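G.,

No rush on this.
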Amino acid sequence: MIDTLLLDVDGVLQLYARRPAVTGILTSYELGSRKPQRAFFDTVLTRVRRRAHQCLFVDDTPAYLDGAARSGIATIHYRDNNQVRAELAARGLLPPRVG
């Protein structure tokens, strides 16, 4: 999920499309709404064919996290990579770091 203007879409697609963990890219432009609107998150859930409890939203903007949470999506407030890795490991989504 990326908030972007139409002019930025091609650059975003080129940046992320070749990453093996990325299975799809949804932009605000194509969804017709923006974070933190409830419609944005509801549309994303429909497009990825998942229920809110099956998803996790990571962002550095508290208002966007609030929007996701209002849609029932678990959230992580991004501060730095190590903090996110630790929170993902605590949720069983990554193995804990050794060392």
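When you get to it, here's the other one too:
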Amino acid sequence: MDSKKTYEQKCRDKEEADQNVNRNTNTNNTKHMEKLNSKSQQAKQNSEEADRLYQQNVTTLGKITDEWMKEHVKACEMFEKQSVERINFLRNAVWTHLNQLSQQCVTGDELYEEVRKSLEQCDVQEDIEHFVNLRRTGDRPPASVLYENFYTGQKSANGAPPSRLPPPITRRGPLPDPTHSRADDTIYSTVQDAGYSVVQF
């Protein structure tokens, strides 16, 4: 911009000098005309030099602008490439993670279904009977303890012999149904046993 302003000013100075020469063409003052011609010639040289510098600066600026545009395009292309790689990486990572979570949900649901099927085969009455058969000590009560005299060796009971029949089994009511339990029902559980599992295979 400065070289352009200088060029335009030098051109105006040259035109003004030429006009002064033309206005004083008919003068008889030789020294004054030589002075005006000298100023005109100097103004012409200055305008030509300013024109040369102006063109040179414009050419240099054009080259610099072209180089800047090329570097700018390369930088934009590099930034675009990096953004594409970043977005693709993030998209693929999230996609893979969601696929893994989805597969875990499917696998977990399949396992839960197997447990539900096993629970459907659970019978409370069979569970109780299994525990009784596994832990019972017999179906008859133990014999009475008799008194034995140290000297005579005779044995006698300290009262009437107890009945040989097992005591009657009384229940307070039917077993609870785990599928229709209420909040105030008593919680029942079986004794842990290594040889028994409620889940049947």
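The two ends are 93 Å apart (CA to CA). Confidence is low (pLDDT under 50) at residues 159-164, 183-192.

Enjoy the weekend,
O.
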